[in-house]
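Changelog note: in this version the structure field was regenerated for every chain. One regenerated record is shown below for reference.
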Amino acid sequence: MKADKKNSIGRFLIIVIIMGLMGAYILSTALYTMTSKREYWTEVSKMFVKENVPIQATRGNIYDCNGKLMAGSVPEYRIYMDYVVIDKNEKARVKAQAYRDSVFDEKLDSICDGLAKIFPDKTSEWFRTRLLKGKRKGSHAWRIYPRHATYIQYKECKQLPLLRDPSFKGGFYAEEILQRKHPYGSLASRTLGDLWRDSDAAKNGIELSYDSILRGKNGVSHRMKIRNRRVSIIDREPIQGHDLMTTIDVDIQDFAEKALVAKLKEPSVNGEIGVAIVMECATGDIKAIVNMHRAEDGEYYEMKNSAVSDLMEPGSTFKTASIMLALDDGKITLDNTVDCNKGQYNMYGRTMKDHNWHRGGYGTLTISQILEYSSNIGVSRIIDKAYHDNPKAFVDGLLREGVGIPLNLPFAGKGEPIIPRPDDPKRYWSKTDLPWMSIGYVTMLPPISTLTFYNAIANNGTMVRPRFVKAEMVNGHVIREFPTEIIKQQICKPSTLKDIQFCLHNVVKIGLGHKAGNGSKLFEVSGKTGTAQFSENGSYASHKYMVSFCGYYPSEAPRYSSIVCIVKRGLPASGGGQCGPVFSQISQFVMAQSLDRDAKEAADSLSVYTPTKKKSRSKADATDDKHVPDVTGMGARNAVYVLKKRGLRVKLHGTGTVKEQSIAAGTKITNPTTISLTLE
């Protein structure tokens, strides 16, 4: 018994000793790891595993109505250098580090010279300083170049010494980032919208309004570093965003912008803001929407979507709605006349004036003439007589016509019309409100609301909502269409519509809007001029004006409607004289698309649409509007612009620049003429 007990104690002591030795080994290993190997394992813990790494989904593209890419996502790269090799195998680590260091030192000049050629905004010496600084710091993620590199630049970097090696060997690696690009520069940029810098988050415009369609859904991965190689393991694949086809026509957009900017720059105009919109009557499709603001450098850029967001007193374009309502309510007929006196008339203590009051006014005018000559007195006397005792009926009638109702456009920051009501307890209604409202003051409308009303007149009285996006697509196939939406089936009686169309046609044919037409040589135009003094901080003392022209064409079978607005300071200020010519140029270009060959063939074959930076003088400036200009040497697009501005029809043969023109420069233009251009 004693022998067995003694043997048991011995075995127990042996076990205790073995366990003690094992514990000492574990403790010493842990101590060694936390001291001399601490740096190595710290780096490994940082780089070995990274969970839930997002895989950015490719954002959907945005196209114009003809399939031209207007906004798309392209990869760009942040490029890095890893100077320190991490490997558990010390012998392998030392060998790899020695290779990386030796090649870096030996080929530094070649690397820096190569980088300077790839990124010419930085010198070779700059890259030398940059790379050496990273090496001194022993960085694992040293940014080689502060900006993003394109795919081509990234591939060129991969041809340089050391950088061409696999990342685990040479240390060079890149992080891919999808960036939003606009192939046509700033065209319609405020409508298309932007993303926040270095982010896939939408900021404004169509990008924001249709973000749920465009952005897709990010995937998820985790990254591991195995034997000094970074490996991404995908846990969930990204779902790519869908594409959108807009209603915008790049060619019309480009032409409208150029025509508007040219007018804004004229010394007599010197405009601060310019807006131009082209709308398809039947569908409400917005074919062009231009928003130009003058910057500090004197040039014009798209800075704000004023066409949709800016609330302005519309001025005389509003008179059409007032006369339409009086006709529809049976208050007047086209046979009535109004005494406009000598251009001045007292309205409840305030003097209403016509624009020609200093020349003795118009005297007695018919209803059509009141619109033709844009008589303030004529309109205000009609509306005050008809609705003075019941101004609420006037405001209700405007809403019945569709004037001032919200359009519910898909844009953040859109301006909602303001039509004051006499029964609003928060606002005092004065006796002068009604007559001044009737001529476009007191109310506040964004330009697109005015255009929507005129488009309804053109569209047989049916008001449609402006449409900016036509379809959602995947891999070029339409999976959903966005239909035309009707706001009001009929804005007035058919007889009223016929009367107002007659008046608007006369405004251009014989009235103040004649410069918006083309002399009836090509097609008929209808519309209305607008000139309103701009209120700033509740005062009109700044002599700031908003001039405009809004109308449609061709008058007999309207297909398109357009509005041109210019905000300027000082006189002269004329909607017909300053906005009318721009309207005329745009309407001729738009209509020519169906007469000439496809617009995409008329574009310069090597050109890229970009915002105008400087105004250049062409040979065509040497002749006046009555003679054929010299367009040889010009690109097709600019040649067509210049010739159509002079009322000529254009036929194109070939692509490139103009080598020959069928009618010699300097020839007098006597009637609508077709000129053929040979391009090479």
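Spot check on this record: The chain has a mean pLDDT of 87. The longest strand covers residues 539-553.
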